[in-house]
Amino acid sequence: MYSPDTNPDVSELPFFERGTPGRKRWYHRWWGKLLLLALALGLVVAVAFGIYVLRVSSLIRSGQLDPQSFLNQPASGSQPAADRSSLATDDDPSVGPAGAAVVIVEFSDFECPYCGQVYPVVKQLIRDYGDRVRFIYRDFPLVDTHPRALPAALAANCAFEQGKFWEMHDKIFENQAALEEADLKRYAIQIGLNSVAFGGCLSSGKYVKEIEDDYNAGIEAGVEATPTFFVNGTLVRGAVPYEALQQLIVAELNR
Description:
Protein name: Thioredoxin domain-containing protein
Shape: elongated
CATH class of the largest domain: Alpha Beta
Largest sheet: 5 strands, mixed
Strand order of the largest sheet: 1-3-2-4-5
Family: Belongs to the thioredoxin family. DsbA subfamily.
Keywords: Disulfide bond, Membrane, Oxidoreductase, Redox-active center, Signal, Transmembrane, Transmembrane helix
GO molecular function: oxidoreductase activity
Number of domains: 2
Strand content: 5-15%
Distance between the termini: 86 Å
InterPro entries: Thioredoxin-like_fold, Thioredoxin-like_sf, Thioredoxin_domain
Number of helices: 10
């Protein structure tokens, strides 16, 4: 026992209260305080970084953040948006003036059901925006899964040769279940093509190289499936609704 005015016997204190006689405990010394401050700051940084990583992971999983864009690197096989202006070619079928404020390039497959699904969306956009938009069609036949996609693309190119690509384009998409050679030749007659010239063009395969060039250009631009659109260079994948493309078009027109 000891009174408040007497000094305690250090030996009688618990070991964690003893300390060194005449010296401050480590956490009372300047370097101890500095160490504690550094540990506290490190803990705050670690917690903040953990929250950030969880947030980024959540955005990537939900599709709101492209991991390649996040890392500031182009996706494998893709071009930066600035280089996609080369996709707007002069030798592919198009609607709208060359000087239109908005250029939409579609890579499509005539046998693809999703391309068929977005077909009326494309027609409505062309109707609604007229000479303010130039729409370009490029071939991207997925021959492994769509065996009639290449013959259909050849038929459309042969129709383009006679100035009636869009008529054949519409016929094919409105009759995707019937794309045999006899069907394609029947559509040629229905849209008023020279059937002899069309038949010769179709059997010769003269536009295979043109279709292959489109396909390779799509691969280089980051096309992985059909349909894929580029709206003034901005990549849009899938059979998106009218409103999604309209929003991009309006944004570009208002620049």
